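To assess whether ligand presence alters the predicted conformation, the chain was also submitted together with adenosine-5'-diphosphate. Input:
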Amino acid sequence: MVNWHRVAFLVRGRSAIATLGALYVVLAFGWAAGQLTAGNPVSNVVLVSSFIGLPGLALLYGGYRLPRTDIRPEFYPTIANWCLGGLGLLLGILVLYQFEPAESVSDPFRAALVLTAFGSAAGFGVGLHDALAKTRALELEVRNRELRRTKEQLDETVARLEAANDEFEASNERLEQFAYAASHDLQEPLRMVTSYLTLVESRYGDDLDADGREFIEYAVDGADRMREMIDGLLAYSRVGTQGDAFEPVDLEAVFTAVRQDLEVQLAESDATVETAALPHVEGDRNQLRQLFQNLLSNAIEYSGDDPPRITVTAERNGTDWTVSVADEGIGIDPTDADRIFEVFQRLHSRDEYAGTGIGLALCKRIVERHGGEIWVESEPGEGSTFSMTLPAVSDRGE
Ligand code: ADP
């Protein structure tokens, strides 16, 4: 289909300039032919016809070269308008002169004065445009220079951060290796302590008095706690190094599995868990299962006197999903909101609530490995909402 807007645009632009140029070239030849036929001297005819033809050629050539300049095509009509404007202006001046008495038209000094005055005014108009264009170009140049400087500073900052980040990663890795080695090596002597305690209990239990049996019970309990802590530390140190590759994970399926894992706890506490429609995220299936198991089991553990009521929701934020696990339990003082994500940080004694204080630290490590963040919003007695960001599965458009 013919695009008439485009045709009209072209006619008003380059074509108008070229047509004007061609017209002057034709007029130059026509005028020369007429003058030569009338017997006028050749040198005079050549000079005057070149005054007419050369600007015509300049217009033709200029119109032809326009696409190779930096001028945007939508501004070609502006140039054509300036050409026609100049033509009209001088034509108007000449017409005005026709109304003057013959002797004043033939006064060269006056004609020169009037024409140069008009010329100056016309030049002023063009000059204004030119100056404005140059001013804008200069402003752009200055802004460009500022942008370049800002970019250089940004590049420097990024480079510095990448150094710092490398160091951070290296020290993190060393720490993980240390935690792994320490917890791994502690397992063996701990197993020895536990098995010899069990041996003492079974072989000499009857010879001990009530105090002796109680002491052994404490020692076994302590050893069990230490084993739990070591297991937690081992799991914590393995998050970064021994995780699986990321894949699309259906969080609905993860929650079904977590409910099965916690079946006994859920039934014993008479808990209700409501889950909204949950998305697929890009992640490590086993680690995500561990993450939600810890959060759900905490929500059950810290539910207070009433049966636990837990709600799981998900909300899309750009390329991430924010998944929240909310309970109506004992709540947390906002001043402790950061501390609870650190290793072995607990807000209660073991008499009040059992636990090792590693669960939320593990959750944080898992979420961070997924490039996300985890946080809690809570008030004492008002329940807690643990939220985390996890990467959406991009190619599924979810
Ligand atoms: P643990 O539960 O083994 O003590 P966590 O790291 O899972 O260790 O939790 C750290 C502390 O944060 C807990 O001791 C508890 O005081 C607090 N906490 C965790 N989850 C909740 C919750 N849902 N409601 C209230 N307090 C919580």
